Amino acid sequence: MKAKILAALREAEGYVSGQELCERFGVSRTAVWKAINQLKKDGYEIEAVQNRGYRIVGTPDILSENELSSIRKTDWIGKKIYYYDETDSTNVRASRLAEEGAEHGTLVVADQQDAGKGRRGRGWSSLPGTGIFMTLILKPELNPSNASMLTLVAAMAVAKGITRCTGMEAKIKWPNDIVINGKKVVGILTEMSAQMDYVNHIVVGIGINVNNESFPEEIAQNATSLLLQSGKRVNRAALIEAVWEEFEHYYDRFMAYQDLRDLRKEYDASLANKGQKVRVLDPKEPFDGVAQGITDRGELIVDTWEARKLVSSGEVSVRGIYGYV
Q1: What's the rounded Cα separation, in Å, for the pair 211 and 224?
Q2: Range name among 4-8, 55-59, 222-226 with the lowest pLDDT average
Q3: Chain-wide mean pLDDT for the chain?
Q4: CA angle at residue 107 from 160 to 172, to 5 degrees?
Q5: Ligand-binding site membership of 224 (annotated)
Q6: Is 184 annotated as a binding residue?
Q7: How confident is the model at residue 119 (pLDDT cuts 50, 70, 90)?
Q8: Which residues bind biotin (predicted)?
Q9: 276 is an annotated ligand-binding site residue
Q10: Which of 20, 40, 81, 324 is the most core-located residue (most Cβ within 10 A)?
Q11: Thinking of the domain 2-58, which architecture would CATH place it in?
């Protein structure tokens, strides 16, 4: 009920009468009054004027199932949302839900996570009220060998969503980080449960440094936040919605071919590594070269002094010669 009333207040250009809300949702005036008061307690600024009705005048940076549902414009993502004030890891939580039968497009969001998962098992902790920690459950008809490319699809969606919400240019550091001015602001981790030729489920986890005011000394050189880069606080719910709207668009184009042929040029245009000297940290034999973009399979093309090499994301890390990017 609260999400529906929030959506109705947002859609209105002015006041919405209590009677109109009653008739629209088939509830009593008392139920509407209670929902409005609960929304006020949640932090929403709602003006009530006798004989005119209710009007929303201020929306703080609130993360909740009601907030996310009330602004949702996506087609299939987020029809079911699980929100937690705190959880261990949204990827872990989403994997459990997927195994229990959660549907394609289910979204898991947390204000804080204390056992977040990064690439190669690295931890990812957080403070409340500062970041976005979310995971999307996918159950596509997809060959398991193509699943890793969804990380690149997600990267494109996040970069575009950030630019939409902040006006800042967000670039992709191949394959799974988003950077602004050479510093990491987003990490993406895609995990899969599959049979030999069948995907049980895929979870796409995204962590965004949004309103962080500082970082520990050991990562401050390479990490940043949208707040630190723009000087402005960003509404996290609005950014979440923007990311998933973009993801639906890119996902459909990816699934049409189950590769990146239709996205490759756009991805390369956002690639922070493109044309840059990079060091490929291959555990077998590290090497240096110049990144030239990606293949239709999402491999990084690296020209070395002796040959052109294709780098797969699951095998290695890539770093800039003179810094993080």
Answers
A1: 10
A2: 55-59
A3: 92
A4: 25
A5: no
A6: yes
A7: very low
A8: 89-91, 113, 184
A9: no
A10: 81
A11: Orthogonal Bundle (1.10)
